[in-house]
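Morning. Coffee machine broken again, so started the prediction first thing and wrote up yesterday's gels while waiting. Chain of 569 residues, entered below exactly as on the submission form.
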Amino acid sequence: MEKRWHIRDAPEGKVRQLAEALKIHPALCSILVQRGVETFDEAKYFFRPQLTDLHDPFLMKDMDKAVYRIASAFEKKERILVFGDYDVDGTTAVSCMFRFLQKVYFPETVRFYIPHRYREGYGVSKEGIEYAHTHNITLIIALDCGIKSTDLIVYAKSLGIDFIVCDHHLPDAVLPPAVAILNPKQTDCPYPFKELCGCGVGFKLICALSRHLGLNEEDCFQYLDLVATAIAADIVPITGENRILAYFGVKQVNENPSPGIKALIELSTLQQTVLHINHLVFVIAPRINAAGRMDDARKAVQLFIEDDYAQAIVLAGLLHSDNDDRKEADTSITEEALAMIENNPQLLNRKTTVVYQPHWHKGVVGIVASRLIERFYRPTVVLTSSGEIVAGSARSVPGFNLYEAIHSCRQHLLGYGGHFAAAGMTMLPEQVQAFSSKFESVVAGQIQPHQLIPEIVIDASIVFADIKPAFYRIITQMEPFGPENMRPVFIAKKVTDTGYSKVVKEQHIKFSVKQNNTIITGIGFNMAERFSILKSQQPVDIVFSINENEWNGEKSLQLRVIDFKPTYR
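Came back before lunch.
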């Protein structure tokens, strides 16, 4: 698929000033300026994260109310329920809070609750409130959910149950009647950093409680491996406070992980690897998510609150097995959906993808939608049966408001929810065709042609001679990478094949390319069909990131090729 290239730049004056202050390559300074780092002090804050730079938790609106209510519960020996969502952010948040409360309070008076993805759905559930009422619980701490659960929190209040909401999703105009709402995205919340994940908000409550109880502040930091996992999985910006939490969380994952994270690392065969945040995103997080997708997410919490490593290995094995089932379902459904589209010209030539099979597993339809976008790059909805109705997940392409498009199709839906880039919906089976037609009509009328072509954002132009160990060391110090601080992507122009490039495993290109007198190697995955462009000996422009390759104990820098095109003269 042809891709658009967008080469970023930064004001030359700011780049020059930063290069003079830091004495590093101007291309790296350009990337830093693009990311809001413009002075020596800002660079020091960026490159040398410190836990002392975390914000005071009591700056968050209602933090004092939350701490007072929990302290009151301690004094009166009330029963407390820690409630959270079934994804990585929710289960890690519940695990941190549950472990902390069990340590500082009477363990038998604290319970946790994770709603079942299919029986109860997302967020605070009536079943969860009924569970609390049955067990004489009078305080629920909701993590990664609750901000939109006004009616249910009113119901809980009628039963004598108070709520503390720790959430990071955008609030509605009407807020639930909780005794405290911790959410930096409230318009009147003065907390300086707005992009915490749900687990991050819960962590700030733990820090505030620790201070109130006179505990050692460093005791809170034992939860950072789970906080970093939530940050990685929830795709929040890796800037500001998230960068600090992720940096030290990844450090803990490598040096002293909790038994649950350690067990997942061992079963994922990563134990000999120095782990980076991308390992949390692509290896650890899918195993945690698989519990809720394929079975019951309570297993994930049970893993993370387990102190005995032998038992943690058993529980991690259950998540590992769920993930194998998830991968099998994901692969088979994706193959089936691709065949449906490729064998039907009507589906192939649309501006949208809508596919439906009643037997598909509901837990993976969102993943399948993302896979289909990788192939066809257009707003996508994958539907399956859920009892007597049809349920599905939708994913968008960057820049297109998916939620608004689905809102325009509401006459065909029983319910829907989501945001700009992802959504879910339910409908009656007889409405599937009408919804598909309407969705195509709405999207075709709104989407711009360029939004249907993938864009590669390039951070800077360099020459091969720049790619030296010192240059690469500075790139590694920009970690952890993630939204708003992605691994730098470079372009090198007028590059030619040395004659030693080759296709490997019939799919990939092993590059050996030169620019002026500098030769460098690299790998380009799934590019074999474009090998003839490289072998033509005509100059190409090549887009890549830089990584380190180790072979027979020797380390060398290589390119991870993202795209290449003939140089246009």
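The radius of gyration is 25 Å. Going to sketch it on the whiteboard this afternoon.
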